[in-house]
């Protein structure tokens, strides 16, 4: 019993130490402010007021900040038609710290409730909402597509649920903002659920050909089918001569 009591006491002490270490290792809003000043203020201003090189962040909030930093679109590598996705420059803790600083200084859209991102919505309704509101740019298979002037809608085949929600709420770059008057949170949940379902779906047999439907299938038949017929015709003609 004495040994057991000592073991329990020691375990509790170690657990308390681990918890305290984890808590103190998390970055604070002040850390986020320092990171912002060192990496973002040149373009967005020390007070987030914006400069000639970058827009104001007033009203941007933590959701858009997390999206832009986690997808590597910010800090911007170079000027262009739109900011490309790349490996993030900051760690997850640093991104959350900067996002918290922006939210505290310039409040805006914040993170959603967990159930919005759980993939448990109405997949059929989400697929229909996606077709009506999103497919004209992102393609009905969420494979992305070209826009004007060198811009493009990215593929959503590997996009996280949080970033799907963030894009709908904050409207990054060329994407429109889908407010509650356009799509309610439950509608957004359904769209996210449909996209997650599509990401997890297994292709049964053959090549998916990008899941682009009759366009890619017709092109495949034209190039390889007609090409094979032409090759056979040439071969038969050569043999007959």
Automatic annotation (TrEMBL):
The keyword Magnesium does not apply. It catalyses: a quinol + 2 Fe(III)-[cytochrome c](out) = a quinone + 2 Fe(II)-[cytochrome c](out) + 2 H(+)(out). It comes from the Bacteria. Heme c 2 binds at residues 134, 137-138. It comes from Microbacterium saperdae. SUPFAM superfamilies: Cytochrome c. It is an enzyme of class 7 (translocase). PROSITE patterns: CYTC. GO terms for cellular component: plasma membrane. Heme c 1 binds at residues 40, 43-44. Keywords: Cell membrane, Electron transport, Heme, Iron, Membrane, Metal-binding, Repeat, Respiratory chain, Translocase, Transmembrane, Transmembrane helix, Transport. Residues 27-106, 121-199 form the Cytochrome c domain. Binds 2 heme c groups covalently per subunit. It holds the Pfam family Cytochrome_CBB3. The keyword Membrane applies. One of its GO terms (molecular function) is heme binding. This is Cytochrome bc1 complex cytochrome c subunit. The chain crosses the membrane at residues 219-238.
């Amino acid at each position: 019993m004495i040994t057991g009591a000592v073991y329990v006491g020691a375990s509790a002490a170690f657990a308390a130490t681990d918890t305290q270490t984890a808590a103190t290792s998390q970055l604070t809003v002040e850390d986020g402010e320092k990171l912002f000043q060192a990496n973002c203020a040149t373009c967005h201003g020390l007070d987030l007021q914006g400069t000639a090189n970058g827009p104001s962040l007033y009203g941007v909030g933590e959701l858009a900040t997390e999206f832009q930093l986690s997808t590597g679109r910010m800090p911007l590598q170079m000027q262009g038609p739109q900011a490309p996705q790349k490996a993030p420059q900051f760690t997850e803790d640093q991104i959350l710290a900067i996002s918290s600083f922006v939210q505290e200084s310039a409040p805006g859209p914040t993170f959603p409730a967990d159930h919005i991102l759980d993939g448990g919505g109405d997949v059929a309704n989400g697929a229909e909402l996606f077709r009506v509101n999103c497919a004209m740019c992102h393609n009905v298979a969420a494979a992305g597509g070209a826009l004007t002037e060198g811009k493009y809608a990215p593929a959503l085949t590997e996009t996280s649920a949080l970033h799907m929600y963030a894009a709908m709420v904050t409207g990054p770059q060329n994407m429109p903002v889908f407010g509650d008057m356009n799509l309610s949170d439950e509608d957004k949940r359904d769209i996210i659920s449909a996209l997650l379902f599509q990401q997890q779906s297994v292709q049964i047999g053959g090549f998916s050909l990008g899941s682009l439907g009759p366009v890619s299938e017709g092109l495949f038949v034209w190039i390889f089918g007609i090409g094979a017929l032409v090759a056979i015709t040439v071969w038969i003609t050569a043999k007959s001569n």
